[in-house]
Design a protein that fits this description.
GO terms for molecular function: antiporter activity; xenobiotic transmembrane transporter activity. With about 475 residues, the chain is mostly helical. The chain contains 15 helices and no strands. It has one domain. The protein is globular and about 70 Å long.
Amino acid sequence: MERDSIDFKNTDIAALFRKLLLPTVLGMIFSALFVITDGIFVGKGIGSDALAAVNIVAPLWLFSTGIGLMFGVGASVVASIHLSHGKVKAARINITQSIVVSSLLLIGTSTLFCSFAPQVVHLLGGSERLTPLAVEYMVWFVPFSVFTALLNSGMFFLRLDGSPNFAMMCNIVAAVLNIILDYLFIFPFGWGMFGAAIASAIGTTVGALMIIIYLSRRKCALRFYPVKFTRKSMQLTRRNIGYMCRLGSSAFLCEVAIACMMFVGNIVFIHYLQEEGVAAFSIACYFFPIIFMVYNAIAQSAQPIISYNHGLHEETRVRRAYLLALKTAIGCGTVFALVTIFFSSEIVSMFIDRNYPAYEIASKGLPLYATGFIFFAVNIVSIGYFQSVERARYATIITLLRGFILLTACFFGLPLLFGNPGIWLATPLAELLTTLFILTIYIKAKRKHKKNIVSLQHGNDDKEILPKIQTPGKKPA
């Protein structure tokens, strides 16, 4: 648990990005393996209905992940700026507040979800055939949501403290433990949905406990700070949490957007292709978060670099970090798209046997689905950039467009125009339209930048808004 030596201010951007990227991506890859393996074991060991049932409940897992990312992003951006100004105590207070409040929030929501499990599954689109399996999985996994959130938010704090390698180890331990227990509980023990759920719960809990132990050590710059319950302290906490949530809201919405994609997709697929369609779609849904994890790892690697230098008004270093992250994500997106298009049958066969009707549906649909991976890369990294420079409004608008407004319209509209292939093309079209929106923002900013340069040359002191970095306002303590 030794801290690495990371100088966010003076180290070359490319070297700094590589140092953070490798352990972050490796950690995310192991998380991706956990998602893939969970799907493979459920599909092969329990059946295609079980795979569809997990997909019905998946939005609740994404909800807890989104809460963790929202508080992780928000607190780490604010803490980064405080650290760049030498305010270590304020940074410690920020991360403590974020962990305490997010944990209390998830304890409350988990209790509510489990108390009305059949009704929640019905609202999520579960059919009469899938509901028993979905409820069984839900009541054993959802109570551990608080650890899922902590595992996700803790990654930001460990990297900011200079320990990206230990952050990677937390993900690896959680993933490996889950894979081993998944196999044991589903195959030798024959515990079915209960075994799949409890294996995932144990894995995430152990990873989260590793983060708690790390943040409790006195030698860490970022560590837990005693919580005060005075009236003034509660008022400051409420202000700080509100600001963190505003900065990290788009990270939460990104996860909710995936949940929305699953929810709306389940409704559309079950309408056109019945339960077999949902089972086929669930394979894409297992695949989509994996792609998101890699893009998110790239964005998270750039985040502390961008936020720290944003606090110092080092605009050139901020831009270089963003462009480097963007190029890396586009390269990964191209590889992901090509692999999925040319090996769709092999990917599907990992999850279900060829004799299931869902196999053919998924094999034909995945290549269409993969056409949006490159646009998805641009959108996720751009959202991360806007979060890191405290432009929450832009990040939120982009997230709402790609994950809710355009996605829902495409899911319901494209099948009417193109039939069943239109369902698979809904997500790629939504991502493409969002990328065009980001390009529009960039072009307008470029024109404004040139106009401001001309104005400054003529003695005008007006400052540009984009793509330069705004002068931060007063930050919460």
